Amino acid sequence: MTDSEVITLTNGEFGATLSPLDRGLAYGDGLFETARVRAGQVPLWSFHRQRLIAGARRLGLVLDTDRLERERERLLARLPTVDGTLKLVVTRGVGGKAYQPPKHPQISYCWQLRPGVSPAWQKGRDGVVLHECRHRLGDNPVLAGMKHLNRLEYVLARMEWDDEYPEGLLSDAAGHIIEGTLSNVFIRLEDGWWTPRLDRNGVAGVMRRLIMEVLGPQLDLVVQEGQVTREALIGAREWFVCNSVFGIWPVTGLAPGGETWTVGPQTRQLQSCFEHWLADNRNLKEVP
């Protein structure tokens, strides 16, 4: 898969580009979503759409939801049976005075359809070793949970390793586990499943939501949100990272410390439950 294979749709025009004056480029003034495409369909699209609309509301943006659907369908129609990824970047557009935004923004909608599936996505189903990042996430409750365009913390964290690990583990300044650089974390302790609370930093992933609201309840697994210490993580019976693109990856090791775990039975159950859910919800319109 190369960049030349990517199909783009920017403000309704195939192959067009953003203005260099766009606030998304200048200030990171916007949001984005990255979704898995399976056989030309986006099973988790309704979750992505709801998160995007909620994030836009927090930024004072009103999105044209009908336009979202029309443009998504136009783009997917170019490759109706593709497996790959769909990315949407929404910005406040051009205008305003420096940081002061325009009163009536002309929102930019920038789509990318990238065909192809990474072999790492499937390989990770049997377990991955993560890099434990030295970089620490700062606290920013105003933006916590949102998938906004300000990603410099994650860029700095990802610079810590090359390709020997598929993902990195991020903590906050106090050393509490928060998330992966592109995924959320779930750990199983003696009292059940936990995932870090994301009220001060981090991104609330749509796969995280699916597990907490749909897959977990189907398996009678209750997930609690709270503070997750490194000590708790090291003592976990099993744990995994997840996102909407690669699904669920069991964690079998942590570098450079050398800690190891086995792939747990409940993680396997969740993987299987997710595959069954996908088979039943190839193009889900509404959140169940």
Main attributes?
288 residues, alpha+beta, D-amino Acid Aminotransferase, Chain A, domain 1, D-amino Acid Aminotransferase, Chain A, domain 2, 2 domains, nine-stranded mixed sheet, five-stranded antiparallel sheet, 8 helices, BCAT-like_C
Secondary structure elements and pairings:
Blueprint: E1 7-10, E2 13-14, H1 23-27, E3 30-37, H2 45-58, H3 65-78, E4 84-91, E5 108-115, H4 119-123, E6 128-137, H5 152-158, E7 168-172, E8 177-180, E9 184-189, E10 192-196, H6 206-218, E11 223-226, H7 230-234, E12 238-243, E13 247-255, E14 259-260, H8 265-280
Parallel strand pairs: 6-7, 6-13, 10-11
Antiparallel strand pairs: 1-2, 1-5, 3-4, 4-5, 7-8, 9-10, 9-12, 12-13, 13-14
Question: How would you describe what is shown here?
Answer:
The longest helix is centred in the C-terminal third of the chain and has 16 residues, at 265-280. α5 (152-158) links the parallel β6 and β7. α6 crosses α8 (265-280). This protein starts with 6 loop residues before the first strand and ends in an 8-residue tail after the last helix. The strands form 2 sheets. Strands 6, 7, 8, 9, 10, 11, 12, 13 and 14 form a 9-stranded mixed sheet that branches. The protein has a 5-stranded antiparallel sheet with strand order 2-1-5-4-3, with helices on one face. 34% of the residues are buried. The protein has 8 helices and 14 strands. With 288 residues, it is of the alpha+beta class. The model has no long low-confidence stretch (mean pLDDT 95). It is globular, with a radius of gyration of 19 Å. The chain is 27% helix and 28% strand. The chain has 2 domains: 3-117, D-amino Acid Aminotransferase, Chain A, domain 1 (2-Layer Sandwich); 122-280, Alpha-Beta Barrel (D-amino Acid Aminotransferase, Chain A, domain 2), CATH 3.20.10.10. Pathway: Cofactor biosynthesis; tetrahydrofolate biosynthesis; 4-aminobenzoate from chorismate: step 2/2.
